[in-house]
Fold this protein.
Amino acid sequence: MRFLILTKKHLLMIGCGVLAVLIGAVVSVSAFAKGERLLPIYCVQTAEKKVALTFDAAWGADDTDTLISVLKKYNATATFFVVGEWVDKYPDEVKKLSDAGFDVMNHSATHPYMTNLSVDKMKEQLKACNDKIAAITGKAPTLFRPPYGDYDNKVISTVESVGMKTIQWDVDSLDWKDTATVDSIVTRVTGKVKPGSIVLFHNDADHTPEALPIILEKLTADGYTFVKAADLIYYDNYEILHDGTQKKKDG
C-alpha cells in the first residue's frame, strides 16, 4: 500500500493552487451579490507577442542561480513575487534577483489569507514586505500578488489605495503539483500562452528548472518576447474585463 506524505512545502504549494480556485469562486459570488466586482489583472489585451513570466517565492531558494542563468541565456526577464518572511530568510537571493535585473515584488509579509484581514492589517502586510524588499533592492514594489490567489473587493481597493496594483495570472504552470512533470509543465504553458499572458511559476518547484529552457526556446521561436509584469500592464485609461483582462480604453 502506498501512502502520500505531504510536507509543509507541498501543503503550501497546494494552497497556492487548489485553494485559489475555491476561494475565487466564493469571492465571485459574494462580490456579485454586493454589486460591482473589483478584479486584479490576470492578463493584458495587446497585439504584441509579449509575455510576463512570474515566480512566487514563499519557501526554498535552491534554484535561484539556475533560474537566473536560464532566463539570462534566453534574454528573458521575469518578476518574482516574494513573501517578507522569505526575504528575511534569503536576503542574498533577493539581492541576486534584483542585481540580475529582475523585478522583486510583493507577495505579503507572512502569506496570510488577505480576505480575513482588516484594512489596517492588510496595509501592514503590504508595508512590511515592501520595506524589506526596498531595504535590499533600493526599489519599493509597485505590484502585489495575494497569497493563495485570495482576494475580494476590499483587498483590491486596499492595494490600490497604497498605490499598488494586484496581479494574478491567466496561465498556471501547475509546477507545484506532485504529479507535475517537465512535459506537463511545458505543454500546459506553451499551449495556453497568448499575447499579454501572465504566467505563474514557483521558484522552488521540482521540475521548473528543467522545463523553463524548453518553454523559453519554444515561445521565442514562436515570436514571443519576455517582459516584466510592471512593463506589461497599463497604468491609466484602462478597464478590466469580466475575465480579468486589462484592456486599454478606446480614445
In short: The longest strand covers residues 50-57. The chain has a mean pLDDT of 90. The chain has one domain: 8-248. The longest helix spans residues 8-34.
